[in-house]
Amino acid sequence: MASQLTAEPTVVVVGGGLAGLSASLEIINEGGKVILVEGESNTGGNSAKASSGINGAGTDTQKKLGIQDSPELLIKDTLSAGDDENNKQLVKVLSENSVAAVEFLRSVGVDLTDVNLCGGHSVPRTHWIPSPKEGRPIPAGFEIMKRLRAKLNELHKEKPERFRLLTQTKMVDIIRESGKVVGVEVVSADGEKSKITGDAVILATGGFSADQDGLLKEFGTQTLGFPSTNGAFAKGEGVKIARKLGAKLIGMERIQIHPTAFVDPKEPAAGTKFLAAEALRGKGALLINSEGKRFGNELGRRDYFTGRIQEHAKPIEESFQGGSAGRNAAIMLMSEKTIDAFGRPAFNFYAIVKKFFKKYENHQELAKALNVGDAVIKATLDEYQEIFDGKKEDPWGKKVFPVAAISPNEPIYAAIVVPAIHYTIGGLQIDDHARVIDEQGKPIVGLYAAGEVTGGVHGSNRLGGNSLLECVVFGRIAGHSGINASKTRTEL
Ligand SMILES: Cc1cc2nc3c(=O)[nH]c(=O)nc-3n(C[C@H](O)[C@H](O)[C@H](O)COP(=O)(O)OP(=O)(O)OC[C@H]3O[C@@H](n4cnc5c(N)ncnc54)[C@H](O)[C@@H]3O)c2cc1C
Which among 377, 405, 421 is the end of a domain? Predict the structure, then answer.
């Protein structure tokens, strides 16, 4: 049986990524209680892997850096990236709440005081943690999840009944009684089944980028054979379980392939890849093909550059840094200046710890390793310098030129990158109260969703940094709607 509605409503949140933790904190802040159900042994999800940051349009950080931005401009960029297929109302809500979302994370101690220019954005607005001069870098997603979890632990210590976390507990079904969602059925690590009930359920179970034999086969045959940047838990269980209940799915065939995932020279054929952060290109990395030539605008949209790699780049031979195991690939080039701008500790993690990058003293060394003529690499770098200096138009329409060009005579760092399944744009249809909508266009009473489990916000293609933003904005909205579920129900 569902618990009775009390002065302190209880909301069951499923999934301990950014959407789930944002919803949980919002519920507690608004006086409710949370039971958080997480299938893995710890919270974090793919959110903890996020490396480029979260979008905010018009933040104090941007103002301090002299960047002029507005929710309207973020709406424009988001719709442009999504080919106008986005749910406009959701995009409006997303953009108008972006400053509050960044502030929400800063309020739990995340130092989001630097911004990146990511592909498809008109201005730098992807907030991340400034790279320390020395020591280990602090990846945005990991830090965000650590701080939110610490805040929830602190609230739990003060008043344990406010926040209960059940890890290694997997939702296997949603319970509906008399037309209302009243809880979920779960299985614990030892295989025991039980029911967890509350006044509302929020699904925050993430996407399906690792569901090769399920939803990817059904909706994304074009993605089969690509590696993935996601954790194995990204199986779309929230989507599948809500679908059985009659939830409407939207944009399921829109699966984002990220153009740049590192090929590990130790394991070039591996199916799970480490993402080459968007910020690398945002700080001036160049991409060339196996012939040593640029073949696209490095700051173009993700689908655009993935298409360029598929059509204009061939697999890299094993003789160059272990090759790309037969996959079409690009070579990412960085210089000392672009490394400094990106952050040396973060770069050293890729170059020294992971060994994805190899250093060449100059273009001749790189040309030799790649088995192309010196003149080809020199011409590529010289031409880019001219474009960078405004003496020539970029043939691929690059208009923003971050940091510096790469001189043929300076050290060049090179890594092989390939496209990888990164994000599932589609999912459960929600409205601007984060209510899950059914096939008939009506909200499923008591059921809410936020984050990658939902669809509609991003249209045909997601803009970098908008996913973490979506998790915070709609996670908080879902939390708010969840604790007001009794009111919402009477309104329906
Ligand atoms: C490598 C990488 C880098 C990225 N970088 C960025 C970035 O810089 N900026 C950006 O905006 N986006 C980025 N993204 C995308 C973004 O991180 C994700 O889309 C977002 O974090 C998803 O958050 P979420 O809360 O919806 O899901 P997740 O964070 O994936 O959390 C879902 C949670 O639900 C749990 N779960 C799933 N099914 C069940 C079940 N049946 N029962 C119980 N628990 C369940 C999972 O174990 C998981 O912990 C990146 C993604 C990846 C993979």
Answer: 421
- Our answer on whether the CB atom of 38 is closer than 6 Å to any ligand 1 atom is yes
Contact 77, 121 (CB under 8 A): yes
Query: pLDDT tens-digit profile of 349-360?
Result: 999 999 999 999
| 374 shares its domain with 474 | no
Question: Can you list the alpha helix ranges (DSSP code H) found in 136-273?
Answer: 140-158, 215-219, 237-244
393, 434: one domain: no
Among protein residues, the one with the nearest Cα to ligand 1's atom 31 is 17
Residues 342 and 455 in one domain: no
Measure the CA–CA gap between 285 and 339, rounded to whole angstroms.
9
Q: CA 93, CA 457: separation in Å to the nearest integer?
A: 10
Q: State the pTM of this model.
A: 0.88
CATH of the domain at 300: 3.90.700.10
Q: Is 11 in the pocket of ligand 1 (CB under 6 A)?
A: no
- Whether 65 maps to a domain, the answer reads yes
- pLDDT of the residue at 2: 37
Helix%, strand%, coil% for the chain, nearest 5? 35, 20, 45
d(CA 371, ligand 1 centre) in Å? 40
Catalytic site residue 258?
A: yes
Residue that finishes a domain, picked among 421, 437, 472: 421
User: Which residue among the candidates 121, 127, 162, 281 is catalytic per the annotation?
Assistant: 281
Whether residue 241 lies inside any domain: the answer is no
Atom 12 in ligand 1: residue holding the nearest Cα:
467
Same structural domain, 22 and 98: yes
Q: Any catalytic annotation for residue 156? A: no
Closest protein CA for atom 3 of ligand 1:
50
Task: Report yes or no on 33 lying in a domain.
Answer: yes
Q: Are 480 and 473 in contact (CB under 8 A)?
A: no
pLDDT tens by residue, 335-347 = 999 999 888 888 9
